[in-house]
Amino acid sequence: MSTALRRPMTLEQFLDWDERQELRYEFDGHQPVAKTGGTFAHAAIQRNLLFSLTGRLRGRPCQPVGSELKIEVACRIR
Predict the structure, then answer these.
(1) Tally of domains within the chain
(2) What is the pTM of this model?
């Protein structure tokens, strides 16, 4: 069996590629992974949390954000 091996994508390559996609993806450190769409219940929970946190954090340097924001997360496995 002949299988072509692909080089892992870099974060920079992923971010460039991701901007041209219609669907949502996350980067696992090697390749894009498709994300599923959220449910109505999940969206309602997120809305309620954001509403509550916004009031509690008013006047502070922190602010709540939704799931649409792209962030880089460092992960250590022990």
Answers:
(1) 1
(2) 0.55
